Amino acid sequence: MSSMASSYKPEQARVPSALPLPSPPLTKFNIGLCQLSVTGDKKRNISHAKNAIEEAASKGAKLVLLPEIWNSPYSNDSFPVYAEDIDAGGDASPSTAMLSEVSKRLKITIIGGSIPERFGDRLYNTCCVFGTDGELKAKHRKIHLFDIDIPGKITFMESKTLTAGETPTIVDTEVGRIGIGICYDIRFQELAMIYAARGAHLLCYPGAFNMTTGPLHWELLQRARATDNQLYVATCSPARDSGAGYTAWGHSTLVGPFGEVLATTEHEEAIIIGEIDYSVLEQRRTSLPLNKQRRGDLYQLVDVQRLDSK
Ligand SMILES: O=C(O)CCC(=O)C(=O)O
């Protein structure tokens, strides 16, 4: 009897093997997760975020993560009103101008949560990464839009106003190689696997889960992404405002490469400081050598971008 396996040859594998982990300038440092309250007052949101970043840095954070949509209420009505032209910069993007100024002044890396971005006649849900020199190092546009309908619980259709991003985003910073996703992006393991295969130390997901999926899925997904890919995962949510149109779950968290929760909080405003130590990645990967044990002869994930760049 012929078997499928006999015609399936390992040399047909098209996926490049996992890249080795790079050595960033800092391999042990504190991350600050700023779980911020968000109001309808954009100026206040920007100065509030600035104060929180300064506080996180004063507590020793070299990397600061902000929530999803921190300069605007989370609603399809608000996105067009609060959107900024990030590429134009300056007055056209006061939120990213602030992030650039603070990262340079405090010499820290900032994963700037996300804000609504205007690009021509399109709107995106976009995360900007600033390096210690205040330069914009990467821009991630949410790839998987949050379109869900759980009858009697929650219906939200980001696609009413937003366009999906088209590229995974992985960025080299002073504090490691970081893969970026925004909220719903965390549900797609393939994205996290590709980041891991490209040598990411840490995945950062600004997010705003809700009162239905938050209790069941938020921590589970973070721990799953960290455990499966043997890397750090950090998330940051807005603080909960029960009077707002969209009620965020909160619970911003740092998870280690063994799936362990290293730092977390409840739903109120908070600045959470957690320690990241990349030497732990090698230890975990040596003890549990999943990368060596993976059966690339039987299944493969194709990283289209890495193949295209060859
Ligand atoms: O996946 C979920 O349950 C929540 C996702 C979400 O709130 C978002 O993508 O903004």
From TrEMBL:
This is CN hydrolase domain-containing protein. The lineage of its organism: Eukaryota, Viridiplantae, Streptophyta, Embryophyta, Tracheophyta. Residues 29-278 form the CN hydrolase domain. GO terms for biological process: asparagine metabolic process; glutamine metabolic process; malate metabolic process; oxaloacetate metabolic process. It comes from the Eukaryota. Transmembrane segments: none annotated. Residues 1-20 are annotated as: Disordered. InterPro entries: C-N_Hydrolase, C-N_Hydrolase_sf, Nit1/2_C-N_Hydrolase.
